[in-house]
Amino acid sequence: MTPFSRRAFTTAAMASLLVGCGGHPARQATAGPGSGRTSPPSPTPVKAARPLGRSVPVRLLIPAIDVDTPVMRLGLARDGSVRVPPVTEHDQAGWYRHSPTPGQVGPSVILGHVTVGDYGDGVFRHLARLRRGDRVVARLENGTAAVFAITAVRTVAKADFPADDVYGDVDRPELRLITCGGPRSGDGYLDNVIVFAALTSAGS
């Protein structure tokens, strides 16, 4: 990771992340299993796959929670926080473009909403239900499918966001999926749900 990318990672992590995950309070009760706060788990060992070349993600599939979404590109807002996908009826995930592309060495970061206001559930509504070993597929612009296995799922207070764990350098291709979670506060949520995954294979 370049020094510029590392600075962008740190800035984004220290700023408010996904503050726009607002929705209907009545829906909070349907968050599903795994939505409670958890302590940091030890990662599940997976056999590392050979890193891929750079190619921007265009679609994300998570079969265990029926996610099949286009992926847009996200940068930084003027305040240094990560931009989030717009709140629209046809919600989609967004790849943080200052992170590696999925399959490159390092942590590739993809964000999504848990709820999208009057439109209801967001694309990452059931992210907290994922378990170790579940599969995530990132389809890339060059036609490659980067396949990841989940190693850990964590729900943490936004005030205690684990910047180093999420954005810090790693020596293999990894993926981070991030959304809001936990109790509601006004139009937002108090926690973040963070999914950690490692590349296991690649195909077409």
Please state the second-level CATH architecture: Beta Barrel
- Give the percentage of residues in beta strands: 35-45%
Major sheet details: 8 strands, mixed, barrel
Q: What is the terminal-to-terminal distance?
A: 26 Å
Main-sheet strand order equals 1-2-3-4-7-8-6-5
Find the count of extended strands (DSSP E, 2+ residues): 8
Rg calc: 15 Å
**CATH first level:** Mainly Beta
Helix-strand makeup class: mainly beta
Fourth-level CATH superfamily:
Sortase
- Would you tell me which CATH topology applies? Sortase, Chain: A
The number of helices is: 2
Helix content: under 10%
Q: What form results from the Cα inertia axes?
A: globular
The gist of it:
The protein is mainly β and 204 residues long. It has helices at residues 3-14, 163-167; strands spanning 57-62, 67-74, 93-96, 106-111, 135-140, 145-157, 173-185, 188-203. Residues 25-50 are annotated as: Disordered.
Descriptors for this entry?
Sortase, Chain: A; mainly beta; 204 residues; 35% strand
